[in-house]
Amino acid sequence: MKTEDFPKEIQPFLIPEKKGEMIYRCLGCEREHGIEKLLYTCPDCGQVLLIDDTDADRLRAIPGDLWRRIFDYRRMLKIPAVKGIYLYHEFVGPVIPLESVVWLGEGHTPMVEANGIMQEKAGMRFYFKNDGQNPSASFKDRGMASALSYIRFLVQGGHVSDVLAICASTGDTSAAAALYAAYLKPHVKSAVLLPHQKVTPQQLSQPLGSGATVFEIPGVFDDCMKVVEHLAENYTVALLNSKNAWRILGQESYSYEIAQDFEYDMGGKVMIVPIGNAGNITAVMRGFLKFYDVGIISTLPKIIGVQSAHANPVYLYYQTPESDRRFVPVTVRPSVAQAAMIGNPVSMPRVVHLTDIYNHKEGEQKVFVVQVTEQAIMDGELLANRNGHIACTHGGESLAGLMEAKKQGIIEENEVAVLDSTAHALKFSGFQEMYFENRFPLEFEISPRPDLMNAPTFVQPDDLENVPAPGKSLGNEDFERFVRRTAETIAKELDLKDGEG
Predict the structure, then answer these.
(1) Cα–Cα distance between 210 and 465 in angstroms, integer?
(2) What whole-number distance in Å separates Cα of residue 98 and Cα of residue 152?
(3) Is pTM, for the whole model, over 0.90?
(4) Mean pLDDT of all residues in the chain?
(5) In what order do the strands lie in the sheet with 163-168?
(6) Among 44, 143, 361, 478, which has the minimal tally of Cβ within 10 Å of its Cβ?
(7) Which residues make Cβ contacts (< 8 Å) with residue 34, sequence separation at least 6?
(8) 241 near 227, Cβ under 8 Å?
(9) Among 4, 140, 21, which residue's Cα sits nearest to residue 90?
């Protein structure tokens, strides 16, 4: 559809222009810093940053109903730069010109309603948002599209050159970072640090395939993160973990898409999000707050963060009475939700800051944190996928969180939940195999349920002397006998009835 075919009152807003003035704002000393160079922490006090638009009043000057129409019509455009997260350009990165935007197909992932069996088990309506259908098969592409668009903008403006992008990862971050950096060659190269033997083979293959330099080091993600932070503080590198505030901006698009898919009616809605390094729950809160502040949505949905009992620092923080709260990192234990296996989340200060704002906006608690077992996470993933979904272990964690929140009375049965399945199920197929073969190490504390186990059945009737093999063809009579006897054996196993024809 061509621009001139849209309603006249919408046409001036359809193609977003470079506007606004963005700054880094410190959550510690509250000082402001320009965005002309890459910053990850405050140069004055070392605290983490958020990015604010100091000209946000221009967004409030546009009525909420007009914003809704702008986004709905803009979704019909064929311009690549606004097909992804920059559909919401004014809220994600208004200072980024469209010619700097990197779009590899990320964003607008499907929200799939659970079938009747699943909804009956949960006792309510709910959806999975399949963020594993992003280009590198995880939600991290949202943040990378933002961070690398910003780097591309700096390169095009002559502010930086020959960028080395670096990150610590449990798998998904490295895959996304390497993919988006590869698109910007030769100006950007990438290196990733992974905890040795703590990343699935599928996830390890991704940064290798994208040409990144991959380092494996002893320990867990938290140890990798400390090394990467040291590199970012002492060398000229672009840090791509969620400590990078541009990552948070991109991930806010998750909230904008859900609001748009619900026709901007967030009444009675609940978002369930794995916490991990706390960047995603930060982005989800901030996205809804932005839409709320300009009147695009009139109600803030509940947000429920989920943590495994094997990596639960945020849960423990909020279990403590408010007057005594002090964040204490934890030593993590093995978890099938590997991206959530983080004992010292980088974005914890952002979570505390935004949770307070979110809970006070409507005068009631809207943000909750629940804890689930490893058993519930793995069972949740398999149960979801047995009912038509492609949930990863973190999607299983979200389902377990829904069940736990429902049990605690945090969620009411007339509400509607959206569960974040952060990555594609195939990235974690090894855990499924371990479950089916009952070979989880004891420290995972997972015992397979027989009703969720599955395995292939080898079929070769005993009375068949000749069977097909590579390079060995059968005569007509032997082949017809092979087909007939194999089909009869399968029909008996499936208890099929004789039919006609």
Answers:
(1) 48
(2) 11
(3) yes
(4) 94
(5) 213-217, 188-195, 163-168, 238-239
(6) 44
(7) 23, 24
(8) no
(9) 21
- Helix/strand/coil for 55: coil
Give the Cβ contact number of residue 330 at 10 Å. 17
Question: Exposed e or buried b for every residue in 121-132, given b needs 16+ CB within 10 A?
Answer: ebebebbbbbbb
At residue 27's C-alpha, the angle toward residues 26 and 33, to 5°, is: 10
Segments in 93-213 forming alpha helices (H) = 116-122, 140-156, 172-183, 201-209
**Pairing state between β 32-34 and 238-239:** unpaired
> What was the pLDDT predicted at 500?
58
Q: 253-261 and 279-293 helices cross at what angle (nearest 10)? A: 50
Q: What are the start and end residues of each CATH 3.40.50.1100 domain in the chain?
A: 111-135+263-452, 139-251
Measured CA distances, 378 to 124, 247, 395, 432 (Å):
21, 28, 9, 8
Contacts with 475 (C-beta within 8 Å, 6 or more apart), sequence order: none
CA distance 202 to 15: 38
Residues 38 and 160: their CA atoms lie apart, in Å, by 9
Residue that is written with structure tokens 């939700």 in the block: 337
pLDDT at 339: 82
Structure tokens belonging to residue 483 = 């087909």
CATH 1.10.8.10 fits 111-135+263-452, yes or no: no
Note the CATH number of domain 139-251. Answer: 3.40.50.1100
Sheet holding 32-34, edge to edge: 32-34, 22-26, 49-53
**Six-digit token string for 175:** 């895959």
Task: Identify the segments of the chain with pLDDT beneath 50.
Answer: 501
Outline where DSSP puts E strands in 332-446. Answer: 367-372, 416-421
